[in-house]
Structures are given as C-alpha cells and as structure tokens.
Amino acid sequence: MIKKEYNTINDFLEDSSFKNWTQQNNGTDINFWEFWIANNPEKEELVYKAKDLVLGISFNKEFVGKEKVAFEWNKLETKIKAKKHSKKKASTLKTNKRSSICSFIDNIKLLFYKFQYFSYS
Hints:
By secondary structure, this protein is mainly alpha-helical. It has helices at 9-13, 16-22, 27-39, 44-56, 66-120.
C-alpha cells in the first residue's frame, strides 16, 4: 500500500493494494481503501471506473489443446472452401444463363432478318 497521489485510472490500476480492495482479498487494504474513498469523495467516480476495469478484465486461464485448435481450424477451412465452391457454381450458372439468353437473342435476330428478307422478295 503506497500512499501517493491518485489522479488517473492508471494510478489505481498500478497499485496492488487497490487490486486487493477490488477483489476483497486483504483486510488491511480493504480498510485503507474504504477510508481513502470516504476522505476523497471527488475521486469516487474515478475509483469505481478503475474498479470496474479490474473486475471486468478476467481471463479464462484454461488453455485449449492443440487437437481442439486443429479440429476447429479444419472446420473453418472446410466452410471457407464450401463457400468458394458454391460461389463458383453460382457463377457458372449465371454464365450459362447469359449464354442461353444471348443465344436466344441471336436466334430472334436471325428470325427477324429472315422474315425481313423473305417479305421483300
């Protein structure tokens, strides 16, 4: 417990006694901070913002095994490849539709041309 100026959130976060108070770990630190907050009401908002940061940042320390990571990675790659394949398939269908439409238009043009040619003859 270092008695110093606490003007920023970092000042609180760098203090181990403050962290103890937020987690209710050490009676001496708890008493000190309760007293300090009561005597520094202008800093109360800053104190509780810092407390929220300390309590809000908790990490699950369980590590994921290499097998699980490899399994999930393979699932992700499979999904990506499936999407790429379905996009290629859709693209091929669009190309086939365009070809059919162009062919149909060409046939209409040919029929129209023949119709005009034979009507003038």
